[in-house]
Amino acid sequence: MGDRRRIKVLISVIGLDGHFTGAEIVSRYLMDAGMEVVYLGIYQTPEMIVSAAIQESVDVIGISSHASNYDQIGMLLDLMKQNGLNDIPVICGGTIPRQHAETLLKRGVSKIFPPQSSSESIVNYITSIVKR
Amino acid sequence: MKRQTDYGYEIKPVYTPKDVSDISYEKDIGDPGSYPFVRGYYPNGYRDRIWTRRMTAGLGSSRRTNKVLKKYREMGQTQGMLVIHDRPSAMPIDADHPMGRREAGVLGWHGVSLLEFEELMDGIPLIGQSITLLGSSAMSCMRLAYIVALAEKRGIDLKEVHGSVTEYPFCHTFGQTDHMPLDLNIKLWLDSSEFIIRNKIRMRCGILSQHFQESGGNNAQALAVEIGQLKELLGLLVNERGLDFDDVGLLPYELVSIGSRFFEEIAKVRALRRMYARMARETFNAKTEKACQLLISVHTSGRTMTYQQPYNNIARCAIQTLAGAIAGCTAIDNACLDNAHAEPSAFAARMSLNTQHIISDETGVTDVTDPLAGSYFVERLTNEVEDAAYKILQQIEKEGGMIAAVKKGYIHNMMYESARKRQKEIETGECLIVGVNELIIPPEDDDDIPIQSLEASDSEEIAKRIEKWKETRDMSILKDKIAQLYKDAKKDRNHNLMPAIIEAVKAYATAGEIMGVIRMAHGFHYDPLEMIDCPFKLS
Fold first, then answer.
1. How many CA atoms lie within 13 A of B68 on its CB side?
2. CATH number of A8-123
3. Any CB–CB contact under 8 A between A105 and chain B?
């Protein structure tokens, strides 16, 4: 009660990907919906993302990815496990082909939002998974 | 549904002679081949020269991309080739860098050394087709050096090679993976441009609005950004490097992003030709007609290609390609049906190339030059987008010009606000997109398409190969060339580094090494990601 702090979401582009527009737009959606966003920007490694997640004690991690071998998202999940962060859901957005999306979901990504997903669907999903 | 251009001009239901009463045909439009070139540069349009029909290539190892290029040649792509960089080489870092090995071959070709270029071009002619390499400003000098070195190896006169392998210094502002400081990118851009111009090489330099527009910018902003860039960058070549504008004006080419708003896209290209011609004459006192002609290529818009119901993208691609063809251009590379999923599969590439040939060979579009000239609507739109662009350009100039506006974040904000507005219009249904906010089908009913994918093991293989290969190089020659490059890079800003870069490239120094040493000479860390140290002793 009383202490209902805002949902805190980390948004980052992973690896050497320079496409930042999607991550910036989604960050704004979440802020407009009253969430707190820790925006890391581009050129973030799984290690950097994990360390920021610990430091900022975020509720959710959102990863933007446009064309990859998607291995770094897997690396992020492994690293989170090693650091005892399994309870933080990881959601992904971007141009992730369906075949890769299925693999990532099996590896532990909680949800993948394809391009053109509505702000409402993203906000609603995050609100529904964060236990407070 | 909104009936407005993306830059906010309200479209009327009917256009009449009143809408063009302020336009003088002789002064404002002119015949094809005449100043201000609204109608294009050739009196007979495509009868004089058909556009180059090409497709983007690049994924995985150089040998893999080489196979794709050969396949494209079988598919009818013989006038010109277009290859883009992978992420590590765009930075640039080598595949054996701890971050490079994670993404080598992702999104493009790992073009970090002359060896990679030799493998890319194995069995593929360097002349008789245009050679275009894209995807990173930082790599411009390297790519130009590859061309020089390979032409020499093959015994070809450098002047016979044509195409474009260099790019404007703002790529990383617009979402490209290029991790060089802007001022250093500008210095290196001046070096490669000056080298091309002084040696009269038939190579153009991409000064593009496409990255800006694909990251969110609207049509009027794209024109303003393009003219703003050209004005400032070409001005540097004239003022800092002492070049004649009539030579400088032959350097740039523009890659325009063409979306589905058919008439507006055509108007944009027509306006761009006029804006450039006027700038060349009025700002730079261009004396030749050639120097008033901005070469324009078309990329159909990747961001309009939907993830949902991907086969719909074939229709979008056809409409956009037709718009590009009617607008008049020198080359088209069209986005593919799988653009929102992956790099083009063979199937998607064939569809895109065939779409271009259907348009060039079956529709009659190549028979008549600038066929929409004189349309009340299109002429009005041409003026409207130009007027709106000049207003934005004034703002950019108020910020101190393009370089200052980029540094202040002004251009980034403009792009971001425009992307956000567009997204909002899609969410509210003001803009309709089939498969996205109308005529939606459940994801499980959507069509599966062939996907060309790259595995982590492919990236690792590229990394291992480079590691081993680096040890086989003649290190004494390489170290000499690197030492010379470092010495030259310490000289004043106008000292051209191209000769030293070419020598280092011929000694098989890599992009990570060459750019790292240049970075150090300019006071930066050897590694853009500051994870590895310089392997050379420099003094």
1. 28
2. 3.40.50.280
3. no
pLDDT above 90 (res A125): yes
Overall average pLDDT of the B372-389 stretch: 98
How close is the nearest chain A Cα to the Cα of B470, in Å? 23
Considering the entire predicted model, what is its pTM?
Answer: 0.96
**Residue-range domain boundaries for chain A:** 8-123
Q: Where are the beta strands (DSSP E) in B207-330?
A: 252-258, 295-300
Our CA dihedral for B429, B432, B433, B439, rounded to 10 degrees, sits at 80
> How many Cα atoms sit within 13 Å of A59 on the Cβ side?
17
The answer to whether A32 contacts chain B (CB < 8 Å) is no
In this structure, the strands spanning B130-134 and B162-167 are parallel
Q: Do B270 and B383 have their domain in common?
A: yes
Residues 6 or more apart whose Cβ sits within 8 Å of residue A63: A12, A13, A14, A49, A73, A76, A90, A91, A92, A93
Q: Looking at the structure, tell me whether residues B268 and B145 fall in a common domain.
A: no
**Is the domain of B156 the same as that of B181?**
yes
Q: How far does the CA of residue B158 sit from the closest CA of chain A (Å)?
A: 34
Query: pLDDT tens-digit profile of A39-82?
Result: 999 999 999 999 999 999 999 999 998 877 788 999 999 999 99
B378, B267 Cβ separation under 8 angstroms: yes
Burial of A21 (0-12, 13-18, 19+ CB in 10 A): buried
Domain housing B294 = 207-447
In this structure, chain B runs to a length of 539
Residue B71's contacts (CB-CB under 8 Å, 6 or more residues apart) are B346, B349
Residues composing chain A:
132
Q: What is the ipTM of this complex?
A: 0.90
In this structure, which long-range contacts are made by residues B406-412, counting pairs with CB atoms below 8 Å and at least 24 apart in sequence? B406/B170, B406/B173, B406/B182, B407/B182, B411/B170, B411/B173, B411/B212, B411/B225, B412/B173
B193 plus B331 within the same structural domain: no
CA atoms within 13 A on the CB side of B100: 31
Q: Please report residues of A whose CB lies closer than 8 A to that of B436.
A: 116
Identify which of A17, A95, A97 has the shortest CB distance to residue B177: A17
Is residue B179 domain-resident?
yes
Strands, E, within B269-376: which ranges? 295-300, 331-333
Q: Does A128 touch chain B (CB under 8 A)?
A: no
Residue B400 lies inside a defined structural domain of this protein:
yes
**Chain A CB within 8 Å of residue B112 CB:** no
End-to-end CA distance of chain A: 10
The answer to whether B45 touches B328, Cβ cutoff 8 Å, is yes
B260 in a domain, yes or no? yes
Domain count of the fold of chain B? 2
Residue B523: DSSP 8-state: T
**Cβ-defined contact of B307 to A95 (cutoff 8 Å):** yes
Cβ contacts of B455 on chain A, cutoff 8 Å: 69, 71
Please state, in angstroms and rounded to a whole number, the distance separating the CA atoms of residues A16 and A44. 7
